[in-house]
């Protein structure tokens, strides 16, 4: 229904191409590209050497290689979902991958780790994000995602540790799924000859692949730091009681096969247990740090002492803590004792349609996985996001023996197209802390700033800004400026002329300042957001609670997002011309049902919408049952001499009880 294109709509976007002209590269790489053929330019890299192992050290040429980096699972996977919302189960675009790698480069991160190549369940419909459709059957289009990642990693100067499957965390398909294709129990993955052959087919497909973007065989790609069998390859042992020794034998067999196919790259141990006598073909020992954060520094010393003289030690994951001091103590220890690397869990990047991708929400509290977004934002204060990321940057340069450089100004962002309703988003710029929205009557200005210091982490998966200060019949041009502590970016592209037909008042329910009135029992909530589509704010109410909006223009339509019980209308809507006499509004609704991959918790999203006849300026939302109102969009279409919407909202805030 075209009249409802007022939500997080699928903007019509140009296809992102992977061209050198769109990338920030080093002077050496730029010179190499300028003097090369197109094919040679595609294969250009800032790296001179493979990372190798010398005893218990990683080596880049003749120099030690040490790093502080991050896990960024979204670089090869679809959104690491909680509720499996279909439109988010997509592979990243090259633009998104580049944004993530630019963020890591700005942080000084020497390495990024991916997480699992999903395999389809035997009875599951093929999806675009399944890398493996079945034993020996591969999705070529999905593998092009890794091609783009490696081409970009070579240009941005970030090494990559690639996981091939998952034991723990295989809900997108992993160890148990390989076994299921042969009708065998999960533990058979490590012992059954046929299943081992199936996994070797995946290993062969990956390690012998030739990159379709750069033309470089994976085995010759210097951006690859190491292959890892899979994520936490000890779940079967821990949960099913499987014999650890047998899995160690499995890893030795797979490592030998991988070295045969690709002698250039290192292999990282794929379990959290420590082998006392590492297999000759396994180069890196990893361990993951969670819980008991005060003990991490001691653990790091112990783990380094156990691997010293044997293998380089890497903290493959650490996180889920707001204790900046304890993280500092652990990283100080790692820098001092020769630990080769440490990678935080986890980071995500900007979304192609504006804002960020999320891996749960920082405000969810203890026990929930969360994601960091560079350079850190107020929404992440509860997990000390900005402090943690600043610390990682400090230690990333320290472990390399380098002085921390000044932050760089953000690049220009990209304003996404929109038409007659000035509600829009922009593709964020890596490292930007905030944005200014500017408007002009002519394409070349003069420009006026109509909103400043907006951050793109406060709204998830929806338009970032709505201009409520314009009126139907006016024509405007728009652009965006990104900023951080280092300064302002150049201006974005210009969108316009925008011939305004409607304006939209948006309430994300962060508080009740947009409403004219709300009942006393209504409460703003910002917890357990993973079970609410990862949207950030909601209003929780029970039967009889109400929320009233007053608009300076006539309302033409309304759309609300709510979360409640399936099969029950969460809200009744009423409209009024004078704010005194209300009449019921007929609505349409649509339910979407989700099941969490964590504990099977169910959630129902109910979208309520209605068209409204002429003359109505007041909207009342009345709760019919306990539910949570997630977002309100009120579209106005008639002209008026009353206050601009922004001023009207400020007036309402003063009147709110």
Could you describe the 3D structure shown?
It is a single chain. The chain is an alpha+beta fold and 657 residues long. The chain has an eight-stranded parallel beta sheet. Strands 23, 25, 26, 28, 31, 32 and 34 form a seven-stranded antiparallel beta sheet that branches. Helix 3 (94-106) packs parallel to helix 4 (140-156). The chain is globular, with a radius of gyration of 26 Å. Mean pLDDT is 89; it is low at 1-42 and 641-657.
Pick out its properties.
seven-stranded antiparallel sheet, 21% helix, alpha+beta, eight-stranded parallel sheet, disordered C terminus
Structural class: alpha+beta
Quaternary state, please?
Answer: single chain
- How many E strands? 34
Number of helices: 12
Low-confidence stretches: 1-42, 641-657
Largest sheet: 8 strands, parallel
How are strands sequenced across the largest beta sheet? Answer: 10-9-8-5-4-13-12-11
User: What percent strand?
Assistant: 15-25%
Average pLDDT figure: 89
| Rg | 26 Å
Helix content: 10-25%
Task: Sum up the overall morphology in one term.
Answer: globular
Separation of termini? 37 Å
Topology:
Blueprint lengths: L26 H8 L3 H5 L8 E4 L2 E4 L2 E2 L2 E5 L22 H13 L4 E3 L18 E3 L2 E2 L1 H17 L2 E5 L11 H6 L12 H15 L16 E5 L6 H6 L3 H18 L4 E3 L16 E5 L6 H12 L5 E7 L4 H14 L3 E5 L39 H15 L14 E2 L7 E2 L1 E2 L6 E7 L7 E7 L10 E2 L8 E10 L2 E2 L6 E5 L3 E5 L9 E2 L4 E3 L12 E4 L4 E5 L4 E9 L7 E6 L5 E3 L3 E8 L6 E10 L6 E6 L3 E10 L8 H11 L2
Parallel strand pairs: 4-5, 4-13, 5-8, 8-9, 9-10, 11-12, 12-13
Antiparallel strand pairs: 1-2, 2-3, 6-7, 14-16, 15-19, 17-18, 17-20, 20-21, 20-22, 23-34, 24-27, 25-26, 26-34, 27-33, 28-32, 28-34, 29-30, 29-33, 31-32
């Amino acid at each position: 229904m075209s009249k409802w294109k007022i939500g997080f709509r699928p903007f019509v976007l140009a296809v992102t191409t992977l061209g050198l002209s769109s990338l920030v590269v080093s002077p050496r790489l730029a010179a190499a590209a300028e003097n090369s053929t197109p094919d040679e330019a595609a294969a250009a890299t800032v790296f001179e050497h493979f990372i190798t192992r010398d005893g218990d050290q990683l080596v880049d040429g003749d120099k030690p290689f040490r790093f502080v980096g991050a896990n960024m699972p979204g670089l090869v996977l679809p959104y690491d979902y909680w509720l499996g919302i279909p439109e988010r189960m997509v592979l990243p675009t090259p633009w998104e991958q580049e944004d993530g790698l630019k963020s890591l480069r700005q942080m000084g991160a020497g390495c990024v780790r991916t997480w699992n190549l999903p395999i389809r369940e035997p009875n599951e419909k093929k999806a675009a994000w399944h890398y493996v459709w079945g034993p020996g059957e591969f999705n070529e289009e999905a593998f092009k995602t890794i091609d783009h990642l490696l081409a970009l990693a070579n240009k941005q100067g970030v090494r990559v540790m690639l996981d091939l499957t998952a034991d723990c965390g295989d809900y997108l398909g992993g160890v148990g799924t390989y076994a299921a294709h042969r009708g065998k129990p999960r533990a058979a993955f490590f012992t059954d000859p046929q299943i081992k052959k199936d996994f070797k087919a995946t290993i062969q497909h990956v390690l012998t692949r030739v990159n379709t973007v750069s033309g470089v065989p994976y085995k010759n790609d210097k951006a690859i730091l190491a292959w890892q069998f899979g994520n936490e390859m000890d779940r079967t042992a821990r949960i099913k009681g499987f014999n650890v020794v047998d899995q160690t034998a499995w890893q030795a067999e797979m490592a030998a096969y991988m070295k045969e196919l690709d002698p250039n790259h290192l292999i990282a141990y794929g379990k959290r247990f420590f082998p006392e006598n590492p297999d000759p073909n396994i180069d890196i020992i990893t361990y993951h740090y969670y819980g008991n954060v005060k003990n991490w520094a001691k653990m790091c010393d112990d783990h380094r002492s156990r691997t010293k003289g044997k293998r380089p030690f890497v903290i493959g994951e650490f996180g889920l803590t707001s204790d900046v001091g304890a993280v500092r103590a652990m990283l100080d220890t790692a820098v001092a004792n020769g630990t080769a690397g440490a990678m935080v869990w986890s980071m995500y990047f900007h979304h192609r349609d504006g804002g960020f991708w999320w891996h749960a929400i920082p405000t969810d509290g203890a026990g929930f996985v969360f994601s960091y977004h560079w350079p850190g934002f107020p929404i992440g204060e509860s997990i000390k996001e900005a402090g943690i990321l600043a610390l990682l940057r400090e230690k990333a340069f320290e472990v390399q023996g380098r002085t921390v450089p000044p932050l760089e100004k953000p690049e220009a962002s990209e304003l996404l197209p929109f038409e007659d309703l000035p509600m829009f988003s922009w593709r964020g710029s890596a490292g930007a802390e905030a944005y200014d929205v500017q408007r002009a009557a002519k394409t070349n200005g003069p420009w006026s700033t109509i909103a400043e210091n907006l951050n793109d982490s406060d709204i998830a998966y929806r338009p970032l800004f709505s201009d409520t200060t314009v009126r139907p019949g006016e024509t405007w041009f728009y652009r965006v400026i990104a900023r951080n502590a280092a300064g302002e970016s150049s201006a974005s592209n210009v969108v316009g002329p925008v011939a305004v037909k409607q304006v939209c008042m948006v309430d994300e329910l962060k508080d009740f300042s947009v409403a004219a009135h709300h009942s006393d029992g209504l409460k703003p909530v910002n917890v357990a957001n993973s079970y609410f589509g990862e949207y950030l704010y909601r209003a929780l109410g029970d039967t009889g609670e109400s929320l009233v909006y007053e608009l300076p223009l006539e309302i033409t339509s309304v759309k609300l997002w709510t979360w409640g019980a399936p099969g029950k209308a969460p809200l009744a809507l009423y409209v009024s011309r004078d704010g005194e006499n209300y009449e019921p509004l007929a609505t349409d609704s649509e339910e979407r049902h989700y099941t969490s991959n964590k504990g099977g918790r169910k959630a129902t999203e109910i979208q309520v919408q209605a068209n409204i006849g002429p003359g109505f300026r007041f909207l009342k939302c009345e709760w019919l049952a306990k539910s949570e109102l997630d977002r309100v969009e009120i579209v106005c279409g008639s002209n008026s001499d009353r206050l601009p919407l922004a001023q009207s909202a400020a007036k309402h805030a003063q009147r709110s009880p």
